[in-house]
Amino acid sequence: MKAIIKAGFSRVAAIVFFSIVAGGSAVAHHSFTAEYDVNKPITLTGTVTKLEWTNPHARFYIDVKDASGTIANWEIEIGSPNTLIRYGWKRDTMKVGEEVVVEGYLAKDSSKMANAKAVKFSDGRLINAGSSANLDGTK
């Protein structure tokens, strides 16, 4: 009897564990249309403050000055590291302190967040940012 209870507990524990792991992955990755609005394109010019070369999407942050001179820190989502490498990115392509121009799409919640389509660097390079907008069949 103890063996049956032990086996049943092990199965329940395994199901709970895998549900938590799979659930975390599902929350971590999202579709473009769930978070961003393809009908709200934006161009931002700012100074890079932070880089995160992580999966499922790399991110960087830029300080952007508005017309009144107020500076806001924007979070910019770009493709996965693997996708970025295919477009010519390397971990050191972008550096903190560098000025960049970001072409992308605003977040639906009107936060200071955007999904980048392309990034233009001060030396003139324009590199595809691996936007998930293209993967969803949108613009």
Commentary on this structure:
The chain is α+β, with helices and mostly antiparallel strands. It folds into 2 domains: 1-30; 32-135, Nucleic acid-binding proteins (OB fold (Dihydrolipoamide Acetyltransferase, E2P)). Helix content is 29%, strand content 37%. It is built from 4 helices and 6 strands, in the order ααβββαβββα. The chain has a 5-stranded mixed β-barrel. It is globular, with a radius of gyration of 20 Å. Mean pLDDT is 82; it is low at 16-28.
Mean pLDDT equals 82
Poorly predicted runs of 5 or more residues: 16-28
**Structural classification:** alpha+beta
Q: How many strands? A: 6
Rg from Cα: 20 Å
What is the CATH architecture term of the largest domain?
A: Beta Barrel
Read across the widest sheet, the strand sequence of neighbours is 1-2-3-5-4
From the 3D structure, determine the CATH topology of the largest domain: OB fold (Dihydrolipoamide Acetyltransferase, E2P)
Overall body shape: globular
Strand content: 35-45%
User: How does the major sheet shape up?
Assistant: 5 strands, mixed, barrel
CATH class of the largest domain: Mainly Beta
Could you state the oligomeric state of the chains shown? single chain
Order of helices and strands: HHEEEHEEEH
Structural domain tally: 2
- From the N-terminal CA to the C-terminal CA, the straight-line distance is 61 Å
CATH superfamily of the largest domain: Nucleic acid-binding proteins
Number of continuous helical runs: 4
State the helical fraction: 25-40%
